[in-house]
Design goal:
The complex is a heterodimer. By secondary structure, chain A is an alpha+beta fold. Chain A is built from 23 helices and 41 strands. Chain A has a seven-stranded mixed beta sheet with strand order 29-32-33-37-36-35-34, sandwiched between helices. In chain A, strands 13, 15, 16, 23, 24 and 25 form a six-stranded mixed beta sheet that branches. In chain A, a hairpin with a 2-residue loop joins β3 and β4. The longest helix of chain A has 19 residues. Chain A starts with a strand and ends with a strand. In chain B, strands 1-4-5-9-8-7-6 form a seven-stranded mixed beta sheet, sandwiched between helices. Chain B has two domains: 90 residues; 233 residues, Bira Bifunctional Protein, Domain 2 (BirA Bifunctional Protein, domain 2). Chain B is an alpha+beta fold. Classes of the chains: A alpha+beta, B alpha+beta. The interface between A and B is large, with 105 and 103 residues. Bound molecules: zinc ion.
């Protein structure tokens, strides 16, 4: 929202010594965030303690750019396309400026002007924008001869002053703009201005106007607020009986008002109005349309002007005695063409302003094409109405249109404002359009809001703020915002003014008022305290603590944490299954976005694996070694429930050299393989003191057959780990021939068994006996089984079993392998001797022979 | 030559030879040859029995004397040579200490996790514990119970991802956790609460250097019978000074969130320019670090509390934004880009 300071000053006397930057800061702190300050001709102030972005706008030199009065326009002796403007600029003598401005030619050689022309006047040395340059370019005005006449000053175009791109002629100022100013007045004092660009939060709908902002300033600075005049000279015949209003749904249309202005002349608006509209970001059209916009910007009440003759004609054609405005929901299949030319098939909730002949406009949002004010309209039927903000909002969303009016109505305008806006606009149309106003207002007001009254105990203000406000202080602040306040022994009775809809009743209304009190009082004046409230029961978050524990263990294992988008596409996850293979990913539907913002983020993921492979592919363009993990949710719809399950997963990815290269140690040939990955998983499980862990061969579409294991913890499946299938790697654009180790584990299935209280074994005091044992078994026998047999046979005295070599080849028979173990025997209470150890060893060998068909390798 | 002469000659020669020895190998050789078990001195001693009996005592005495002298000399020489060799090895064994150290392949936490942990730790000391809730949420909890009925204008503040399941959205903020926490921990509005609610949030926004579709948020909630706005200011000020530095200045700016009232934005003076204005703070001198406010009575009521008796405050902040401010990161896309050249800087 763009708010010119000059316009604000119509309604509040901002102290002359208050820099606009300070005002902007006060507004910002009070919740009206000034996003930008636009300067027009005037310099930026530097206020201690207030930082504002430096502005490089053109500052009009107070001595060299002034108000000029053109008293005569003479022809140029040597050039037909130039004239000489004779200018009174407040100096001792008149100055003659050569100019090619076409808008002066009509005055050429007409002698001294009966009505002088006012124009911005720049003298030698003044800095201006270059009017002839296509690119924004500044210049310093220099004296020079123009076709034989020395010229050291000029009358300026809007472009040269930085007011617009208009360089068609010089800027001529209308009387109303220069009233009270003598020639030579610094132009800053005539046209200089500052425009505040204010961002409003939705609760500040009441401040979405010049008056609304002025009201906030008045409250903040404790100044008097003036309101726009509401008197209208109504000298025409009564409007009553000439037009009717039928409201079919007061909930959607609490109020509808009309005036009639007859005999207006459509013409451009006066310059002061055009300038204000432009500063506020609107394009001037003609006086009638401009007035509706001007009054909306000023009061916050949108208005709509109909061509009364068209309305009358439609009534006559539809056989009505007098025109009747009807607000109603659309008929099935009804459509409407709006003034922007768009055609709308209306939804059932799209409220219409209609007459007996059909729809006229989309209520509160945009007028229809047919009844729009035309350049030759003579009589204006002016509407100021009020609409249910939720329905306006639904309609703008369903019809995908927006407008200044619709935006204001959709945030809520108080019905009382309809008459305020109507009166202000009607009087302006009379004055600026030259018409006669029919006497009276047609006002259909079926849903007049009850006045909102809130009882506010002082104790409540103190309870919430923690500050010792007195009733008098509170009342003073609220009155500054135009609340009605009665003071009682037990508190305040507050009546909400009729420009705001944001104050509730009861405890909600109290909170609404407390916000207003603290906001105007100033948050910066509220002291800091330490909570002295009862400390609530303290609850640890075991799931989070264990998750962070897992993260620390993985980082300790040299893995980097990544965090991926949880949004993906089914197509990307489908790449995890080679064509023709069966998918091993969750066989449920996806949580699917109804309004995806991009084609690569349409559903919530089922797996962490796709994201990890994508990260790997991107990073392998510049690095060769990856050790990654991610912890995060996947999203699995549950049948019969609206919300999905969100189980947490741990994803792992290892690829590239196992070791980091250094200057005397080239990266070894060893690439990460299955056992590196398994080692990471084992390290994690050991670190979490998870017991009863098993790895078993499994198959999974994403993984290399025969290099894939399922992890189980306490018999519960806890995920899969292995080498990624080469076809999957190709699908994810990973380099040929580089094995990638992947795992996706069910974090909850692991963390459920993490043990923060595991029992620690005493450090042994007895010496151990070490023995090596090599067993030859068939190749298919899993190592885990061999170890289990050894441990079972070894019993309690067998402290540790460590596999240190796996060997195939001569002299081991084909189809067999040799597994070599280092065995540690120890008794906790005595020194073991060779005798019992040898017996145990024989027992182990025998058990291995019987259960696995193993032979001792001598 | 008598045996005694031979003994004396041996003593002279061995002493002279010992003085010339320069290496520990030669020294060991000398020891073996001269005073070892089969060394010359020992051999001579063993021949004592060949001497006439009257010479034996004198010879034996002298031989033992010489053996002791040579052993002493040997020990001295051994010490000297060890010193020399150590000095030589130090001379030869110098390394170029400017060569790079061997890389340790350490792992790292994602910077968002690091910041989350920092946030958890500060709030934990003030009695706030972590409560997590779901990413896929109902419209009812994300908006409705937070005082935003359907079509409420404030809903425009969040660009929302809707799912194909009616009434189900991706949470736009962690505030729905307030409702879950109050209902779970409040025991029907009878118990005070202090929690922080971290989690991933989602917004329907184009991904740019400044905005993401997915980001972490940490919400905080304190409910009690005597929680005041002054507490909100004091508590958040304490947090900001811990997070951004003890010298920081704070500013509370009036703002609007439908679930708090009064509401405020919290700014900290710009870390980069100290408030003088720079392009990170958009020349305002201030950086926005949190939104906050007193819990709205409707939200208290929806959480099971009587708003005439209970009060509370809530706040929300973004760990990625905190990380960006602290480390001068200009592009939020780095966070989920997972480029190791970024991640390895933490
Ligand atoms: Zn800065």
């Amino acid at each position: 929202m763009l708010i010119p300071i000059s316009w604000l000053k119509d309604y509040v006397d901002i102290p002359a010594d208050m820099p606009v930057e300070l005002l902007a800061e006060r507004l910002t702190l009070a919740g009206l965030e000034v996003g930008k300050i636009n300067y027009i001709g005037v310099p930026q102030n530097h206020v201690p303690g207030v930082t504002v972005p430096p502005s490089d706008h053109l500052v009009w030199d107070r001595q060299k750019i002034v108000l000029g009065k053109i008293v005569e326009v003479k022809s140029h002796p040597n050039a037909d396309r130039l004239v000489i403007a004779v200018v009174d600029y407040g100096g001792a003598a008149l100055e003659e400026c050569v100019t090619g401005a076409p808008n002066l030619f009509q005055y050429k050689d007409t002698g001294p002007l009966a009505t002088p022309l006012w124009s911005p006047f720049a003298m030698e040395g003044a800095e201006l924008w270059d009017g002839h340059s296509d690119e924004p370019k500044r210049m310093i005005l220099k004296g020079r001869p123009l076709r034989g006449i020395y010229n050291k000053a000029m009358v300026c175009s809007e472009k040269e002053l930085g007011l617009s791109d208009d360089h068609e002629g010089i800027m001529l100022l209308e009387e109303e703009l220069v009233a009270g100013h003598a020639p030579g007045t610094p132009l800053q004092d005539v046209l200089g201005d500052v425009v505040l660009d204010i961002e409003l939060t939705p609760n500040l709908a009441r401040a979405w106007s010049v008056v609304g902002v002025a009201r906030e300033i008045a409250a903040l600075l404790d100044l008097e607020l003036r309101l726009p005049p509401t008197e209208v000279l109504m000298s025409g015949p009564p409007i009553a009986g000439r037009v009717g209003i039928t409201i079919t749904n007061p909930e959607l249309n609490p109020r509808f008002t009309l005036t009639l202005i007859e005999g207006v002349t459509i013409r451009p608006s006066p310059q002061w109005m055009q300038l204000r509209l432009r500063k506020a970001g609107m394009r001037p059209i003609n006086n009638i349309v401009d007035i509706t916009n001007y009054v909306m910007l000023e009061t916050g009440q949108p208005l709509h002007a109909f061509d009364w003759d068209i309305i009358q004609r439609r009534a006559a054609e539809s056989g009505a005695n007098i025109p009747t405005i009807i607000t109603r929901l659309p008929e099935p299949g009804e459509s409407l063409t709006l003034l922007d030319g768009s055609v709308h098939q209306l939804d059932a909730h799209n409220l219409l302003v209609a007459d007996t002949a059909g729809a006229l406009s989309l209520a509160g949002i945009m007028g229809g094409l047919e009844s729009e004010v035309q350049p030759d309209s003579r009589n204006i039927l002016l509407e100021a109405a009020n609409w249910n903000f939720i329905n306006i909002r639904r309609t703008m969303q369903s019809r995908k249109i927006t407008s200044e009016a619709g935006q204001r109505f959709s945030r809520g305008v108080h019905p009382a404002q309809a008459e305020v806006g109507l009166r202000r606009a009607t009087e302006l149309m009379r004055v600026l359009g030259g018409g006669t106003v029919a006497s009276g207002i047609v006002d259909n007001y079926p849903l007049r809001p009850e006045p909102v009254v809130v009882d506010l105990p002082v104790s409540e203000v103190r309870r919430i703020t923690g500050m010792d406000f007195t009733a008098t202080e509170i009342a003073a602040i609220l009155r500054r915002l135009q609340f009605g306040v009665e003071e009682h022994a037990d508190g305040l009775r507050v009546t909400v003014p009729d420009h705001r809809l944001d104050i509730g009743t009861g405890v909600i209304g109290q909170a609404d008022l407390i916000e207003e009190i603290t906001r105007i009082y100033g948050y910066d004046r509220i002291p800091d305290t330490v909570m002295d409230d009862l400390l609530p029961p303290q609850r640890g978050n075991v799931a989070l603590q264990r998750e962070e524990w897992a993260r620390d263990l993985l980082v300790g294992a040299g893995l980097n944490e990544v965090i991926n988008y949880r949004l993906t596409t089914p197509e990307r996850e489908a790449l995890l299954t080679p064509p023709g293979a069966a998918s091993s990913l969750p066989a449920v539907g996806y949580v699917t976005l109804a309004n995806p913002i991009s084609q690569d983020k349409t559903v919530m993921r089922h797996t962490l694996l796709a994201g990890l492979l994508e990260v790997a592919a991107r990073n392998l363009r510049h690095t060769d070694r990856l050790r990654l993990f991610e912890i995060g949710s996947i999203y699995l719809p549950v049948s019969g429930q609206a919300l999905p399950a969100e189980p947490r997963r741990l994803g792992l990815l290892l690829a590239g050299p196992r070791d980091v290269a250094s200057w005397d140690l080239p990266a070894r040939e060893g690439l990460h393989d299955f056992f590196d990955l398994k080692g990471v998983v084992e390290t994690l499980l050991e670190g979490l003191h998870v017991r009863r862990v098993a790895f078993a061969p499994t198959t999974h579409g994403t993984f290399f057959p025969g290099r894939t294991a399922e992890l189980t913890v306490n018999g519960r499946s806890a995920g899969v780990l292995g080498e990624a299938h080469p076809k999957v790697l190709r699908a994810f654009d990973l380099p040929e021939g580089l094995p990638v180790m992947l795992a996706e584990l069910d974090l909850d299935a692991i963390l459920d068994y993490a043990d923060e209280m595991h029992v620690v074994q005493p450090v042994p005091t007895q010496p151990a006996v070490y023995q090596d044992l090599a067993l030859v078994v068939n190749r298919e026998v899993p190592a885990a089984e061999v170890e289990a047999v050894i441990r079972a046979a070894g019993g309690e005295l067998l402290e540790d079993v460590r596999l240190f070599d796996v060997y195939t080849g001569d002299p081991i028979p084909v189809g067999q392998k040799s597994l070599a173990y280092a065995l540690t025997f120890r008794a906790p209470d005595r020194t073991l001797t060779e005798g019992p150890v040898n017996k145990l060893r024989q027992k182990i060998v025998k058990a291995a022979q019987q259960k696995l068909g193993a032979k001792l390798r001598e | 030559m008598t045996m005694l002469d031979r003994l004396e000659t041996l003593y002279q020669q061995a002493s002279a030879e010992l003085a010339q020895i320069a290496s520990s190998e030669a020294l060991a050789d000398w020891e073996r040859r001269v005073i070892g078990r089969k060394g010359e001195v020992t051999l001579l001693l063993r021949q004592t029995g060949q001497l006439p009996p009257e010479e034996r005592a004198a010879f034996g005495k002298r031989a033992n004397e010489i053996k002791a002298l040579l052993s002493e000399a040997f020990a001295r020489r051994e010490e000297e040579i060890r010193e020399q060799e150590l000095a030589r090895s130090m001379e030869e064994g110098q390394v170029d200490v400017t060569l790079p150290g061997r890389k340790v392949a350490r792992g790292r936490l994602h910077p968002a996790t690091q910041t989350l942990r920092e946030v958890y730790a500060i709030w934990a000391e003030m009695g706030f514990q972590v409560y997590r809730s779901r990413d896929v949420e109902t419209d009812e909890v994300n908006f409705g119970l937070l005082n935003m009925p359907p079509y409420h204008p404030a809903r425009d503040m969040w660009d929302t991802f809707y799912t194909t399941e009616p009434g189900v959205i991706l949470r736009t903020h962690t505030s729905p956790g307030q409702i879950h926490a109050m209902r779970e921990y409040g025991e029907n509005g009878t118990k005070p609460i202090r929690v922080i609610l971290p989690g991933m949030c989602y917004r329907y926004e184009q991904i740019t250097a400044r905005s993401e579709v997915q980001f972490h948020q940490v919400e905080g909630l304190a409910i009690g019978r005597g929680i005041r706005m002054t507490d909100l200011k004091g508590t958040l000020t304490e947090f900001a000074r811990r997070m951004y530095g003890a010298e920081r200045r704070l500013r509370f700016r009036a703002s609007h969130f439908p679930f708090t009232e009064p509401s405020a934005e919290v700014d900290v003076d710009c870390i980069l320019c100290g408030g003088a204005g720079c392009n990170v703070c958009k020349y305002s001198g201030w950086l926005e670090i949190a939104g906050c406010g007193m819990v709205h009575p409707v939200v208290l009521r929806n959480g099971g509390y009587d708003p005439t008796v209970w009060s509370g405050f809530a706040f929300g902040m973004g760990p990625e934004r905190i990380t960006m401010l602290k480390h001068g990161i200009r592009d939020i896309r780095y966070f989920w880009g997972n480029d190791l050249r970024f991640l390895n800087q933490f």
